[in-house]
Design goal:
Layout (H helix, E strand, L loop, with lengths): L4 H22 L3 H21 L3 H26 L3 H4 L7 H20 L23 H9 L4 H23 L11 H5 L3 H4 L12
Helix pairs in contact: 1-2, 2-3
């Protein structure tokens, strides 16, 4: 449980995270939305760090802020998408959005009301949380991931590799005439006779 100064920082980061998350969907400029999303990720990483989950905090910064959010930002800035025309039919989905919002609000109220209930933590956990003074949870997660779950870790890597190859194949399968492609077989089979044309020009006449 977080108390004292840690609780103050927790509420500060939580307030900024919620406010920036609201600004992600409220901002009219898509670039500003992505910047607010990055701010949300930073505050969520700070919350993870306060609870002692430094591995999740660093993963959130490296993967989401360093890759996903920056990718969104570059895509939004480079594609010049007309978001005004895309938002014209947004009111048609307002009833569905309101229904989803009501369901999420009800779930949050249930969670807040359930804090009064007593939760008994199991005492016979197979993999207990390591003592931070002796061993950090990042090292413990690495030991568990590369020993007990190495098979599942490798399978997940193979699945991601196959998905990446499939996406590349589906993208490059359709021939596009305006795109220049490299034919390595033709380049290797090329001879000097095919690449060079010798022209006998008489002296003083030029080409």
């Amino acid at each position: 449980m977080i108390t004292g100064l840690g609780a103050a920082f927790f509420y500060l980061f939580a307030f900024i995270a919620v406010a920036s998350a609201l600004m992600v969907i409220a901002a009219r400029n898509p670039v500003h939305s992505v910047l607010y999303l990055i701010l949300t990720f930073f505050n969520a990483a700070a919350l993870f760090l306060l609870t002692g989950a430094e591995f999740l905090s660093m993963i959130l910064l490296v993967v989401y802020v360093g890759a996903v959010a920056v990718l969104f930002l570059f895509v939004v800035m480079m594609l010049d998408v007309d978001f005004a025309s895309m938002k014209r039919g947004a009111l048609d989905y307002a009833p569905i959005g309101a229904l989803v919002g009501i369901v999420l609000a009800a779930e949050l109220l249930i969670v807040l009301a359930g804090n009064a209930a007593t939760i008994i933590a199991p005492t016979d956990t197979a993999l207990p949380t390591p003592d931070p003074a002796v061993r950090h949870n990042t090292a413990a997660l690495g030991d568990i991931l590369y020993t007990d779950y190495i098979f599942f870790f490798q399978i997940a890597g193979i699945v991601l590799l196959v998905a990446m190859i499939g996406a590349i194949v589906l993208t490059l399968r359709a021939p596009r005439p305006h795109v220049k492609r490299q034919n390595m077989a033709a380049q290797v089979a090329r001879t000097p006779a095919d690449a060079i044309e010798v022209v006998d020009v008489e002296t003083g006449k030029g080409i």
